[in-house]
Design goal:
By secondary structure, the protein is α/β, with parallel strands linked by helices. It has a single domain, classed as Rossmann fold. The chain has helices at 2-10, 15-30, 55-63, 76-85, 119-125, 143-147, 158-167, 187-195, 203-212, and strands at residues 45-49, 68-73, 90-93, 107-113, 126-137, 171-185, 221-234. Strand 4, helix 5 and strand 5 form a beta-alpha-beta unit. The longest helix has 16 residues, at 15-30.
Length: 238
């Protein structure tokens, strides 16, 4: 799964998602505010919770080198891969579903991309006035692959439910950005997309076609990438 993510993300297939995250974090970085890490002007602290390969944080660091990063994932292999991508970061192996080993209010920005969410703990570790950025797929995301049985279905209304759940914890919704585009995907790319997550009921058939040199293996087909970037701010405590 990690290898598939690294190869797919390295191909640039999800660059529009990275670009949207960069712009969102840049707007936070440019805003006059007190950082959790110390005095105004100190490095903005970004916690990538469920960091996977660290791709999105590495892209952020290239665009905004003044940021400080904490890379956290349940998988030790993922954390090691993330630190190879971003050696200056701090890496932590943790279970997002359990209490996070972070101080209350120590994070300026939480980055949560295609990853589990521990809403209560996110609200605790984020400083009041801090920003949470989460990327969630819509029901149209990779729909062609799902219809072919290569991936699990995505229920609709995911963003609406998250907005309601975070709102109950004192988060306000700043923006919802739709990111949708067509990706021309050959068999190798479709296999990477299927292998990135828990799915692949029939991916072995696709892999066999590629191994056999099937004529269809090199045929690129349009696949829709469709996600929403939700930006939340944690209310300041009175």
């Amino acid at each position: 799964m990690l290898r598939a993510r690294a190869d797919l993300l390295g191909s640039g297939a999800y660059t529009p998602i990275s670009d949207a995250l960069i712009e969102a974090v840049r707007s936070v970085s440019d805003a006059p505010q007190t950082r959790a890490a110390g005095e105004p002007g100190s490095a903005l602290r970004v916690a990538d919770l469920g960091c996977g390969t660290g791709h999105y944080s590495a892209e952020l660091a290239r665009a905004l080198p003044e940021l400080g990063f904490l890379l956290a994932d349940r998988s030790p292999d993922a954390v090691r891969a993330s630190l190879r991508a971003l050696p200056a970061a701090t890496g932590v192996v943790l279970d997002i579903w359990r209490p996070l080993p972070l101080r209350t209010g120590c994070v300026d920005v939480i980055l949560n991309v295609f990853a589990p969410r521990n809403l209560d703990e996110f609200a605790r570790v984020l400083r009041p006035g801090g920003t949470l950025l989460t990327v969630v797929p819509t029901e149209r995301h990779l729909q062609k692959l799902r219809r072919e049985g290569l991936m699990l279905d995505i229920p609709g209304g995911k963003s609406s439910r998250l907005i309601e759940q975070f709102g109950a914890l004192g988060f306000t919704t700043d923006s919802t950005t739709a990111i949708e585009y067509r990706l021309e995907a050959d068999t190798a790319t479709r296999l990477l997309l299927a292998d990135m997550g828990p799915s692949a009921h029939h991916a072995e058939t696709l892999a066999q076609d590629a191994a056999d040199g099937s004529a269809s293996a090199e045929t690129a087909v349009p696949v829709t990438v469709s996600v929403e970037l939700l930006r939340f701010t944690l209310a300041t405590r009175g």
